[in-house]
Write a structure and sequence with these properties.
single chain; mainly alpha; elongated
Length: about 160
């Protein structure tokens, strides 16, 4: 919120300063799930490597880089994107610890503080905001998956 506030006030030096202070907390939150997503992507790519459409592309003489990027990586990212959407919940669970260690004001820290103060209205507001974030993240995940696999799009299977 500090970076967003400074950007809305057009205070560019404060915005750049807040971005530099976000690097370590962002890495601390992201590195936990990053290895899991990499492992899932690798496993899915090795499973898809022996599919017929990959062998057909090799037989057509398609360059290996194009096969890996377009025909192999794209369908292999579907399970990774699904898990990434679910890992978004873990980010909020770990955000409290990261916000306490780096002394960064955030929604998770605010939520814990209002729980300790037993402020029911603020607790309800935090829960509504987190629920809204999860709904938006699930919609984004579904849209990204529909771009990765056109068979999943609405109305694609209708005759």
């Amino acid at each position: 919120m500090v970076s967003l506030d400074s950007l809305l006030q057009l205070n560019i030096p404060a915005f750049l300063d807040s971005l530099t202070h976000l690097i370590l907390p962002a890495c601390a939150l992201a590195l936990g799930g990053l290895s899991q997503e990499a492992r899932i992507t690798r496993s899915s790519m090795t499973d898809n490597m022996s599919k017929d459409y990959i062998l057909a592309q090799r037989a057509y003489g398609t360059p290996e880089r194009r096969i890996l990027g377009k025909f192999l990586l794209k369908p292999s990212l579907i399970p990774t994107v699904s898990v990434l959407g679910l890992d978004f919940a873990v980010l909020f669970g770990n955000a409290f610890l990261v916000e306490m260690v780096f002394n960064w004001p955030g929604l998770s820290r605010y939520g814990i503080n209002v729980m300790l103060q037993k402020d029911l209205n603020a607790i309800s507001a935090v829960i509504i905001v987190l629920g809204l974030i999860f709904v938006i993240m699930n919609i984004i995940t579904d849209v990204v998956i529909s771009f990765l696999d056109p068979r999943i799009r609405l109305g694609a299977g209708r005759v």
